[in-house]
Write a structure and sequence with these properties.
422 residues; alpha/beta; 9-stranded mixed sheet; 14 helices
């Protein structure tokens, strides 16, 4: 029962706020009040609508929402999300485009497990689909995984990635985004030593903390200040009785969301106040810019306690990847074993999560890889989100990544379709 009470308390608070929002919206929307000129009533209904939606989205997994793409023939091609590998803590899924022959490019997108669902990469997937067959790691919410499924830490994560790469084969091009960058590098090195025939053709690492000490951010500062004992005490809870994972130790998504919001509290507060006024004035819509962003941003998932704690301890505090001292299943993983996988790193000049210098550190670890197989790009003016899903990705980074993939495959530059506007 230890830590379970606080988990249920947080869920109760979320549930209560959702109920208060629904109640305020319903009460202030009674037709009888339509004759009143009191401006408080429309504002009350608007506050209720925004509040209900906000707290309701925190426990709902977003849909991918990629229904179709336009092919080179000008026709719409329906898109199905099909599981390729199904495992307790995460699936490998394919975005299968109907009536389209296999594409020359096969891309594996490694999604972050850092509090949000893989659907955070929706626009990234949509932008790549016209030019590649796309596969994604779809991590599961730890609150929904029974305790009987066992543990899941950074070593298990690395082995999952290695298995996904083996299933897809050596003609795969891997793109890792944010949190999984160092572990994807480790998984590739693990394959280079244990199953060299299964290594991917290329590896693109975008905005990840390979060496957290290369450039300080609020994330790295927090990692240095807090001890592992303190972190376990303040961040770890047991899943409450409401979910299938009852009793599992987790780092709750609601706590992670609180940290996310606190980093830019003024900006988020202003955004919600403005949305309330837009709703009151009839200017908001179900899929306006505010709702599109926050429906995804507020949808958070729990991480297993062992994954969260081992990430902080081994990746940030001990810097095992940065020091090339990482081990998986008792076997040391040597980054120098990567000798034939082309590797490119991408960083955003204004990234405040994984600052410039943290990701490019990967290239220094690849002592067995020739310089002609390495690449690096820093995107001017881009923040963390922009380097994989924003304007910078669509207009600048995506073409560079696809051209790097083609060079790694030994193909001349080919025509790249315009990125989706999604």
């Amino acid at each position: 029962m230890k830590y379970m009470y606080t988990y249920d308390l947080m869920e109760s608070a979320r549930n209560t706020n959702e109920w208060l929002g629904a109640t305020a919206r319903a009460f202030a929307s009674y037709p009888a009040f339509a004759m009143s000129l009191n401006p408080v009533l429309p504002l009350m209904a608007a506050w209720g609508e925004v509040t209900e939606r906000t707290f309701g989205r925190m426990v709902a997994k977003p849909d991918w929402g990629i229904r179709s793409i336009v092919g080179p023939d000008g026709q719409d091609h329906l898109v199905d999300v099909n599981p390729v590998v199904q495992k307790p803590f995460g699936d490998l899924v394919q975005f299968f485009v109907r009536r389209r022959a296999p594409m020359p490019r096969k891309v594996l997108l490694v999604a972050p497990m850092s509090g949000h669902y893989a659907t955070l990469l929706r626009s990234t997937v949509a932008s790549l689909l016209p030019d590649a067959d796309v596969y994604v790691t779809d991590w599961h919410n730890a609150r929904d995984i029974p305790v009987s499924a066992g543990k899941f830490d950074v070593e298990d994560y690395t082995l999952y990635l290695a298995e996904y790469m083996k299933v897809l084969g050596p003609d795969t091009h891997v793109i890792a985004i944010c949190q999984p960058v160092p572990l994807t590098l480790a998984a590739t090195a693990y394959l280079a030593a244990e199953h060299p025939e299964a290594q991917p053709r290329s590896l693109v690492l975008i905005g990840g903390p390979v060496d957290p000490d290369a450039a300080a951010t609020e994330v790295t500062d927090f990692g240095r200040r807090v001890t592992m004992g303190q972190l376990e005490h303040i961040a770890i809870q047991r899943v409450g009785f409401k979910y299938k994972g009852a009793g599992r130790l987790v780092y709750p998504g609601l706590l992670q969301l609180q940290s996310f919001m606190a980093m830019n509290a003024e900006r988020h507060g202003k955004a919600f106040v403005q949305q309330i006024f837009r709703v009151a004035q009839g200017e908001a819509s179900d899929h306006d810019a505010h709702n599109r962003f926050y429906d995804e941003y507020l949808a958070v998932m729990d991480m297993t306690a062992e994954f969260y704690l081992s990430t902080v301890e081994r990746i940030f505090k001990k810097r095992e990847i940065a020091r090339n001292d990482f081990a998986v299943a008792g076997r040391k993983v040597d980054m120098g074993a990567i000798t034939r996988v082309s590797v490119m790193t991408v960083e955003g000049a204004n990234d405040d999560i994984s600052a410039p210098g943290q990701c490019v550190a990967a290239l220094k670890l690849l002592t067995g890889l020739s310089d002609d197989k390495k690449g690096h790009h820093v995107e001017p003016g881009a923040g963390h989100y922009g380097i994989f899903a924003g304007k910078s990705w669509r207009l600048n980074i995506r073409p560079l990544v696809l051209n790097f993939i083609d060079r790694a495959a030994g193909k001349p530059k080919t025509r790249i379709a315009l990125a989706s506007a999604q």
